[in-house]
Amino acid sequence: MRDVALLGAAMIKFGRYPEKQVHELAAQAALLALQDAGMTMADIELLASGNLYQSNAMIGQRILKEIGQSGIPVINVANACATGSTAFREAYMSVASGAYDVAIAVGSEQMGKMGLLGGGGGGGGGVSPEGIVGSGLMPAVFGMAGVEHMRNYGTTQEQFAKIAVKNHKHSMHNPYSQYQVEMSLEDVMNARTVAWPNTLYMCCPTGDGAAAAILTSMDKAKQYTTEPIKVLTSTLTSDPYTERDLTMPDVNTLTKNAAKQAYEDAGVGAEDLDLVELHDCFATAEMLHYENLGLCGEGEAGKLIDEKETYVGGKIPVNASGGLLSKGHPLGATGVANICEVYWHLKGQAGNRQVEGAKTGLAHVIGLGSACTIHILQK
Amino acid sequence: MAEAETQAKQVKPILPFLHIPEDENEEPYLAGSKCKSCGATYLGSRMACSKCFSTEPMEDVKLSDKGELHVFSIVHQSAPGIPTPYVAAIVDLPEGVSVRCNIEGVEPDPKNLAFGMPVEMYTEKVHTDKDGNDIIAFKFRPAK
Fold first, then answer.
1. Whole-number Å distance between alpha carbons of A227 and A112
2. B29: β partners
């Protein structure tokens, strides 16, 4: 495997675009990424398109019909919330393997106001077991994952709420964020409960969005820039057997396995990271991943947020973008957008939310079912 | 008579691993399967062991109707048509299996629930399908 550079990246502001078609959002992001890389579609040798809810609709090819039908191979990828980051990995692998020199990954999704995700299926007589046999909807799944942290370490609802306060505060400096609304601890705690302990403002919104990234061989990148961003690792895991995983998705072991592999592959540790964009689909999730990614020791995540160490300016800034909680979570776009945010910080282009002097950053995504991706980028 | 039999109202489980004995005097139970190689136990049946990959046929296990509350959430917002609030939970059974379920018999408030509290399973009819069959679900409540 050879070294791979992230030569360009872009996203459109996440939000709601009912007047657009999803491939138009994707094409817009692709053109912005090409512009950022200093390339055109003539330079692109492979396209990996991540889209979950229209995964049978050939979104990748529809992007090319909008911006350039060069006849290149197109891979359409679906992998739950890790759809975009898995598309990124397909582009990465195609370059790392030596098969292609330049590939583009485009993540897109158009969810509108589609409501709660997950659950369903499997009921006898056409009866959904949802609400009768517990809940498989994401708010309850991540509610229970947070409650397990409470059980193990005495974590409080207030500590989870503090994570939401942080991410909403960070979003104030991100013009690409779906929501930019600062909230107090009281605002978050007093909001209506969706699935305890997560209140409304501790849950990410649904929405529309797109992001794109151009990956090239390091040799190719050096023809375009003197300071290429290196992709140190592109790691993907699925959930291994653990005792409760089939009933209660074990997002912890999934992420810990990915983190171990990623740090070994990249040759860096958690202590070397200057910023992290992690999968805060719910405030409870972010708490778990502080420990899963090794940003603190087991059981120390509550203290990490109490001491504000994951704020921009803290020891290890997490979700400077505002996270999924504010920035939004258009599923197929999310994984590429997380990488784009890290890229902007390494390039010094993150505006008022810039993590000063950032040299190494990590982007983490999980898709329930389950998939985990970790990408580590370095300047 | 054969025709009448095919039209007879049936009792069906909401999920396939809820076993409803033909003898009405026997209580429904959760059916599991146990790997003969490594002992990992599963809800329902599996083609091979997810833990050790053994393909030897598994041993059928009748799972206990008593367990302990592992974790829970109080669901206040759900899909359209699903009544809220309710307690969604994970219950650990002594055979090493965990079950996703509702906890009934308590007001849905965290203060009424304790980690590790003993719970017991019961079943009830939750729906009649379009063919007139009774759909039976399992639920848990604090153990008496």
1. 38
2. B19
Which of B17, B45, B75 has the highest number of chain A CBs within 10 A, making it the mutation to test binding with A? B75
Is the predicted pLDDT of residue A19 greater than 90, yes or no?
yes
Torsion angles phi and psi, residue A354, rounded to 5: -55, 130
Chain A hits for B93, Cβ within 8 Å: none
- For residue A131, give how far its alpha carbon lies from the nearest alpha carbon of chain B (Å): 6
**B79–A contact, CB cutoff 8 A:** yes
Tokens 């209580």 -> residue: B27
- Given an 8 Å threshold on Cβ–Cβ distance, is B71 in contact with A119? no
Complex ipTM: 0.94
Catalytic residue among A170, A329, A345, A364: A329
Q: Class for domain A4-113+205-378, per CATH?
A: alpha beta
Q: Residue A303 is inside which H or E element, if any?
A: helix A301-306
Please give the full DSSP string across A273-286, using - where no structure is assigned. -SEEE---SBHHHH
8 A C-beta contact, residue A150 and residue A198:
no
Beta bridge partners of B59: B34
Q: Give φ, ψ of A124 to 5 degrees.
A: -75, 150
Q: Residue A223 and residue A85: Cα distance in Å, rounded? A: 26
pTM for this predicted structure = 0.96
**B110, closest residue in chain A (CA to CA):** A196
Q: A124 vs B16: CB contact, 8 Å cut-off?
A: yes
Q: At what angle do helices A283-292 and A157-171 cross, to 10 degrees?
A: 100
Put simply, the answer to whether A132 touches B130 (Cβ < 8 Å) is no
Tell me if chain A has a CB within 8 Å of the CB of B126.
yes
Closest chain A residue to the Cα of B13, Cα to Cα = A124
Contact state of B40 with A241 under an 8 Å Cβ cutoff: yes
Dig out the tokens for B21 from the structure.
Answer: 């004995």
Inter-chain contact A195–B88, Cβ cutoff 8 Å? yes
A329 is catalytic: yes
Provide the 3-class DSSP secondary structure of residue A49.
strand
Contact B102 A134 (CB under 8 A): yes
* Cβ neighbours of residue A50 closer than 8 Å, sequence gap 6 or more: A77, A78, A79, A83, A84, A85, A86, A87, A88, A105, A106, A107, A108, A332, A333, A335, A336
CA-to-CA dists, residue A78 to A124, A332, A367, B25, B91, angstroms? 28, 8, 10, 48, 32
Q: What distance in Å separates the CA atoms of residue A173 and residue A141, rounded to the nearest whole number?
A: 30
The pLDDT tens digits of the residues spanning A113-163 come to 777 777 545 555 677 899 999 999 999 999 999 999 999 999 999 999 999
Spatial distance between the Cα atoms of A43 and A332, rounded to a whole number of angstroms:
24
- Nearest-neighbour CA in chain B from A88: distance (Å): 29
